[in-house]
Structure formats: C-alpha cells, structure tokens
Amino acid sequence: MDQPRKLHIKSFGCQMNVYDAQRMVDALAPQGFVETANADDADLVILNTCHIREKAAEKVYSELGKLKLLKQDAAQQGRRFEIAVAGCVAQAEGEEIIRRQPAVDVVVGPQSYHHLPDLLAQARREGRALETEFPVEDKFGLLPPPQPEAIRARGVSAFVTVQEGCDKFCSFCVVPYTRGAEMSRPVAQIIADTERLAAHGVREITLIGQNVNAYHGEGPDGRPWTLGRLLHRLAEIPGVARLRYSTSHPLDVDDELIAAHRELAALMPFVHLPVQSGSDTILAAMNRRHTADDYRRLIDRFRAASPEIAFSSDFIVGFPGESERDFVATLALVEQIGYAGAYSFKYSPRPGTPAAEMQEMVAPAVMDERLERLQSLIDSQQAAFNTAAIGTTVDVLFERAARHPGQIVGRTAYLQPAHVMASDDIIGQVLPVTIHSLERYSLLGELASRPAEPKPVTIGA
Ligand code: 5AD
Ligand code: SF4
C-alpha cells in the first residue's frame, strides 16, 4: 500500500451527516486514508453537504472556491489534492457541481458512499471528474463495519444508523427527495455494529435516521421489528449503558416505544420530537398529518410512562400563510409543553417541494421578529431546565478531558455537558455528580458518593 494519505471531511447539517462522515472514513481506510483536522495538508477533502435550509448550495460553491485555491497550491508543489462533494447538495445538484466548479473530482450522493474508493480511483485513472448516478440501492449492507482505530477515536458515544430516507413528505422538506424512500436496516446488522462498538469501549449508542421511529427492519425471526423492540434487544448488549434515538415523527410513535421508556433503564429520558408549529392550519398546510392536540396527548403519554422525560423539538416560523394568530398558537404550545431545548428556523423554500409553490410568503422582517420571540421563550425554558439541575445529583457519562487541566467533561441524561475535577480514568464511566453551579450551558459539579436520584421534570404544564 502507498504511504498514508490524509483525508479531511467537512460536514454540514444533521447528525446523519456526522455519521455518514464516519462511514466515509471507514470506507476509505482500506485505501490508506487517515483523517486530518485540516484541509490545508489533506490529500483528499470531502465536503459533506446539507440541503435542508437556505443558501446551502451557495455555501458549497463558496467552500469549493477556497478548496480550488488549495488545489492550485498543491499542484505547484507537485502534490495531488482531490476534492469530493458528498451529502444532499451533491444529490440535488449532481453534475451541475462539476460544471460550476471544475476543480471537483467526484460528486457522490448519500446512497453511494460505498462507491467512493472506486469513484476516486476511476476519476484519477480517467483524468476527469465523475458523478455517481445516484441509484437507490441497499447501501446498508455494503459499507465496511466500523474500524477499531476509528471507533477509539470517536470516544464513548457513537451513532448507529437504523433507517434512512423518509416517506412523510412534509410539504417544506427536501429529505424525501434527497435521501429517498424510507429504508430500514436489518436488526442483525444493527446488533453486529452495536456489539462491535461496545467491545471497543463505546458506552452510549444513538440510533439515528431521518424518521427513526418509522423503523421496521427485518428481525432474526424474518418479521419486521419496531424501534421499541430493537431498543429492548440492544439494551441486552454488554457494555451498552445508554441508548438514544433521533429524529422521531409524532405519527410514528407507538405504544411499544413509549413503554420502552418505562421498561429500559438504558433508554435516556430525552426525546427529540419535532412539532414544527402549534397551529392546526399550518400543520395541515405542512402535511404533518397531526394536530397540536394530537401532539399534546402524545407528550402526556410519554410523561405518564416516565415522568423524567424531557423533550426537544424543531420549529419553523414564517411558513407560507402563517398569521400572527398561528404563530401565537406555536408560542402557546411551547408554553404548555415546556422544552429542555429546541431548534427554531425561518422557513426557506426548497426547490421541488410543494410549499415552494405556495404564494403567501411571510415578510422577512416578520419572520425575524417571530424567530426572536420564539427563541427567547425557548431559551428561557432551557435556562430554567438547566437551573433546576443545581443542587441535584445526576448521572453523567464521562467523555473526555475538558479544556481546563484536571477537568473531565461528560453528559447528563439530557445531553447537558457536565464538568468535574477528576482523574481521566473516569472516562467511559457513568457516575453520579452533584451539580453546584451553571456556566452558560454547562453544569459544574463534583463526583458524588450517593447514587443519582431520578428527577421529575418540573417545567411546563
Ligand atoms: N425551511 C426551514 N426549516 C426547515 N426544516 C426542514 N425544512 C425546512 C425548510 N424548508 C427544519 C425542520 C426540520 C429540521 C431538521 O429542519 O424544522 O425538523
Ligand atoms: Fe422531512 Fe417531514 Fe420526513 Fe422530517 S418527517 S425528514 S421534516 S419529510
């Protein structure tokens, strides 16, 4: 094999992209590629792009402009410097990327990452840029499993993809077009990946998918398994201390998933359940296929199963036709639920989606103002949630040394960063921590001698 070549991946967007970046590293490792933190000294740079919101494509072209200069520098030094574009912009723009930026060597969509080594080799051989034809195929069986070196580098928490794509067709969203139809991975593959990760020190597994609770992968019994059933099975794997899943659609939550929160100690009581809007008119226009009350009842069912559960959500403000009254209904819903945190976005029309054809655009200044009102409400709820931790003893999974010498950082069940002074052999352990203060979004505390108490969540209705 040639001497190691350096690979730099710059990821934008969702956790699926973070995960995919890891899979690309795994796919390229057998070709002698090792990861580097800098684009400057890389031999191959992959832009792992996101198309979900505004200006995604423009951002990619401006990044590519910078990479082109690095490629020119490398050429002057007689060094090969390759550029690949992956992710959803690659999927959406295809050949257009090569046309607009000829410095690009390869364009590859999310369904085809297992072709990356071959594509790069072919582009090199033929001396021309290549684009995959983006076939929708079984990508799941084709990538190599996570490699031990790479697992260690990732630390104590890892993503495992369980499904990809989405059949929900929310009217604003490009995912069903860029990521394609919903596909679930077979249970056996997920168990194998999880066992491998756990054997190499991973303690927390987050099952990910664009619509993760639509999961219906084939079980060892030849029948489709639900996400709830899968979680029960994964909780049996030695070494797995914590399980999470993201992102869920309210319509696909079933009793088994809710019950899993009562039954599985390893399943963390923090659920990302996007609602997008609190107005039934807007929810209908978004093709969400649930009402605000359906969502409220769902939250109640989760809370009845496990009072510790806290929620996060996504919101879109300024969807076409959103009136002040619709927006106030969103604020009211947020008030009632009481979130531990949430993401809110200004609506941006995505070409090819039904909402992009809608006429009644909300004025940009109105969108800005609504975003600010919503964010300040969510921020105050998040601050209240974090403040409520002060004086309590909570379990923390320790991840790594923090910036201050002697300090170790980990995460609570609710993904709050928590810092203690301790030796680094606590990394990888879940230990009780008594929280004494808050520094921005981080909890500060000390290792406790008594076990953590379950904490009923107090904010919200
Ligand atoms: N405009 C604004 N936000 C969007 N999202 C998805 N599509 C759009 C869009 N066109 C948001 C949704 C989704 C999150 C991942 O991104 O809130 O849940
Ligand atoms: Fe997009 Fe809706 Fe599918 Fe989420 S559920 S990925 S918002 S279409």
What secondary-structure arrangement, pairings included, does this model have?
Layout: E1 5-11, H1 15-28, E2 33-35, E3 44-49, H2 56-76, E4 82-86, H3 87-93, H4 95-100, E5 106-107, H5 116-126, E6 130-131, H6 148-154, E7 157-161, E8 163-164, H7 175-178, E9 183-184, H8 187-199, E10 204-208, H9 227-235, E11 242-246, H10 255-263, E12 270-272, H11 280-285, H12 292-305, E13 310-317, H13 324-337, E14 341-346, H14 364-387, E15 393-401, E16 407-411, E17 417-421, E18 430-439, E19 442-447
Parallel strand pairs: 1-2, 1-3, 3-4, 4-5, 5-6, 7-10, 10-11, 12-13, 13-14, 17-19
Antiparallel strand pairs: 8-9, 15-16, 15-18, 16-17, 18-19
Helix pairs in contact: 9-10, 13-14
Descriptive overview:
This protein is 34% helix and 21% strand. It has 461 residues and is α/β, with parallel strands linked by helices. It has a 6-stranded parallel beta sheet with strand order 2-1-3-4-5-6, sandwiched between helices. A 5-stranded mixed beta barrel has the order 15-16-17-19-18. Strands 7-10-11 form a 3-stranded parallel beta sheet, sandwiched between helices. Helix 9 (227-235) packs parallel to helix 10 and helix 13 runs parallel beside helix 14. The longest helix has 24 residues, at 364-387. It binds 5'-deoxyadenosine (5AD) and iron/sulfur cluster (SF4). The site of 5'-deoxyadenosine has 12 residues, from strand 13.
